[in-house]
Amino acid sequence: MPTKAPAPRFTLPPEPAATPEPLPEPGVDELRLETVMGALSDPLRIFIVQKLLLDSEAYDHPCGWFGIDRPKSSLTHHFKALREAGITRQRQYGLERRSQVRIDDLETRFPGLLALVAAWRPAD
After folding, report:
1. ∠ CA(113), CA(9), CA(102), 5° rounding?
2. Where in the sequence does UniProt note compositional bias of the Pro residues kind (predicted)?
């Protein structure tokens, strides 16, 4: 019988000093699977979450770090949808918002979901 590969562990770098408070977001007990899945139904949003999970270089990242060629209003909509669903946490740094995945909260509420998101590939 083949052995099952262990689930990947996603971690955040340590929180820097003087990090702003997060923007409003649902609490862990308020995370709903249908809301999370609805937010992840858009391939661009899955890309954003994958990039944060697999390529993060810092505690949180500004919109420009993702390299997405879309109008700012469109990106704002997608980042807001992810935050309001409870998938990402955003903080305001002056005029810039930076995002990170709520790894611990999502793993607590929906174990294994982030591994599925990280492994997702679009259909050919």
Report:
1. 55
2. 11-25
How many domains does the chain divide into? Answer: 1
The position carrying tokens 């810039």 is 96
State the virtual CA torsion across 20, 30, 113, 76 in degrees, nearest 10: -50
* Nearest alpha carbon to residue 99 among 56, 39, 47, 70: 56
Query: What tokens does 100 get?
Result: 């990170």
What type of residue sits at position 64?
G
Q: What is the pTM assigned to this prediction?
A: 0.90
Which of 39, 41, 38 has its CA nearest to residue 99?
A: 39
Q: Read off the pLDDT of residues 23-67 as tens digits, 9 standing for 90 and up.
A: 999 999 999 999 999 999 999 999 999 999 999 989 999 999 999
Angle in degrees, 0-180, between the axes of helices 72-85 and 43-55, rounded to the nearest 10? 70
